[in-house]
Design a protein that fits this description.
Bound molecules: flavin-adenine dinucleotide, NADP nicotinamide-adenine-dinucleotide phosphate
Structural class: alpha/beta
Oligomer: single chain
Number of strands: 21
Number of domains: 2
Largest sheet: 5 strands, parallel
Radius of gyration: 23 Å
CATH class of the largest domain: Alpha Beta
Shape: globular
Number of helices: 13
Distance between the termini: 35 Å
CATH topology of the largest domain: FAD/NAD(P)-binding domain
Helix content: 25-40%
CATH architecture of the largest domain: 3-Layer(bba) Sandwich
Strand order of the largest sheet: 4-3-2-8-21
Amino acid sequence: MTAAQSPITTHDLIGVGFGPSNLALAIAIQEQRAARQRPLDCLFIDKQQHYRWHGDTLASQSELQISFLKDLVSLRNPTSHFSFVNYLKEQGRLIDFINLRTFYPCRTEFNDYLRWVAEQFTDQAQYGEEVLRLEPVASKGPIDVLRVISRDASGNEYARHARSVVVSTGGTPRIPELFKAFKNDPRIFHHSSYLSSVAKLPCSQGKPMRIAIVGSGQSAAEAFIDLHDSFPTVEADMIVRGSALKPADDSPFVNEVFAPHYTELMFQQSPEQRKHLIEEFHNTNYSVIDPGLIERIYALLYRQKISASNRHAVLCLRHIQGLEVSPQGIDLSTRDVSTGQVQAKRYDAVILATGYSRDAHRQLLAPLEGYLNEYQVDRQYRALSTPDLRAGIFLQGFCEASHGLSDTLLSVLACRSEEIAEAVYQSLQGCVAHPGLKIAAVGA
Ligand SMILES: Cc1cc2nc3c(=O)[nH]c(=O)nc-3n(C[C@H](O)[C@H](O)[C@H](O)COP(=O)(O)OP(=O)(O)OC[C@H]3O[C@@H](n4cnc5c(N)ncnc54)[C@H](O)[C@@H]3O)c2cc1C
Ligand SMILES: NC(=O)c1ccc[n+]([C@@H]2O[C@H](COP(=O)([O-])OP(=O)(O)OC[C@H]3O[C@@H](n4cnc5c(N)ncnc54)[C@H](OP(=O)(O)O)[C@@H]3O)[C@@H](O)[C@H]2O)c1
């Protein structure tokens, strides 16, 4: 079935992606329902076949990097049915969790919590369809309705109509230029597909392998530890551009940048001041590792020294400058930036733990670009537009530059979803654009 042939359904709201951001929004809309004149007709479309939260990265040692109290609801409504604590109660694990004495559950458990929430919204969810683009529905007057085009795994395309859209599609794996030509080589893959990709490698059958991990953020560290713990036949090198593995700063004063009220402070700054704040607190989130994990890696390397083993290494100050791929292996040449010395080493696989870019919204919204103000948003995350675009377009996870470092994380989901839910209602009531609102740069 093609988009043109599909029956057209018009919804009040279509959410693109059904990760934590839109899950939190679905809850906020449901919990606000009693105060509204009519319920909203919402549909959330996700390209995954089933609910999973970064499912291919859920290695056994991976823990949540934020307090469980920053779940989908508690900061806004601690009495919500959808709290992590209520999930634990319903699973019969509340007392055991208390005995763990932690704020940081393993990510496998938090994934299960999110799945538990998602299951309660199956009537509003469409899984297994990737949204390709958002288009204006042609009309002589203002544009009040958008067309959402999606495609399922069999190649069928669908068109749906919506009076407002919330784009929450998360990050896109960042592949360094040098490696882009090898995206179909199963030996070279981004950390976002870690578990399924490693399962296809010979090490999962107990065969020896040398594996390079590029990057020095949390993903790289988790891959390093998992290769050590789960694959005794693997020798792993972490290839690091910087001079050392650095800890994530989650000390209490610094952590206030992730509080909901900080969003307001951030938004009120000039573009230069915002940029400065993001740079100042960069080491709370990017290119940094949980301190406990750093200690584990250090202790592991120290134990190697005692036994004169050189199984694993953390290679700092290394720039990858050459790559040759053959059936025999992947030859990486790295330059030590302190000495200028170039070293070549053959690996059997390379894991790119090279982070994520935040630009998927630009491609999805490209057909509407002429109506939008360079993807900038107002305080309620609504894209600024020309007056003739009256359908509301909201962005979650693409507003770091204007709303702060919490934008890509779980930190403010509970509160942000309430703000967006309120703004969606307002946009549906009035169906008017906000051309005159304060301009805010959207994150890259
Ligand atoms: C490995 C990893 C671990 C993390 N751990 C933490 C943590 O512990 N604490 C924290 O605060 N943050 C963490 N983060 C940051 C993470 O961004 C947030 O936790 C959270 O996932 C953001 O939710 P989201 O819904 O905005 O995006 P995502 O969780 O990325 O969800 C986006 C959803 O959109 C779907 N999608 C994407 N494109 C399309 C499309 N075109 N059509 C349809 N569906 C689409 C995807 O399938 C996905 O389900 C982590 C990130 C990663 C990569
Ligand atoms: N357990 C968890 O909760 C968990 C697990 C994984 C990830 N996360 C979260 O996910 C987000 C992303 O983390 P991440 O570790 O995936 O990414 P990241 O923090 O952005 O780190 C990316 C790393 O890749 C390096 N890199 C990027 N491009 C490179 C290139 N061309 N050549 C060499 N190195 C390159 C960067 O080096 P430079 O430092 O030199 O720029 C950096 O070390 C964070 O919010 C993190 O907290 C959480």
